[in-house]
Amino acid sequence: MNVQLTRGTMSSENFTQVIKMGVKNGITVECRLIDLLSCIRSPQYIAMPVISIKQPLGDFAESHEEKSAEQQEPLLEIKKTALIRKGTVLESYLSHADASGCLWFTGKAEQYYDMIEYNGSPMDVRITSDSHSLKLDNENGRLVCRLKLTVLAHSSLDIRDEKSSDQVAALVKQRLEENITGVWNKALYENRTDIFDVWRLFRHKYPQSYLKYADRLDEVLGSVELETDITCRVS
Question: What pLDDT, in 10s, does the model give residues 151-161?
Fold first, then answer.
């Protein structure tokens, strides 16, 4: 997702625009100033978009007349999302698919464009959210985070028969499960970075346990199991 820049001084509006577009299309996550400030009194787990400047195409020596508008102006783009833990940017970054998984998990996803392999050919799909619920349960000493998600899959192909619809729905469900499980493993298990705010669920539902294990929160969160229940309808 790119945002064209105009010549002159680069303003904060340019960065705001590219981040909003990135979040809307599911390739990065939102990081607000209030989120950063709130970390002063709470666990410091943050995911932040990494914005880069894509240089114009063509040779700068070419005359103005010979270059198109796209070639003349630089672009802002989001290639990855950084993981920040206790004020330190980690070496591990989130891909677009990882960021999408994070948005679906937290219920902040609006839409996501993806390509799936259907009947031996690539097919573009637009995935939108229909319903979302998330809860944390204690089962015999095991903390289990349960995600229930319903999405709609939109395709340019005319899919009417039930068999084809079920096949597409299964492929979309598999892709979402992969993205959500992948970012969960990368952020929480591998990097001990709770960008999903599971700690808030833990504090809200089990306040006494939260206070008891406050100094070992990383250890507790790193043991939380994930269960997903995803339903996809093709429209």
Answer: 999 987 777 78
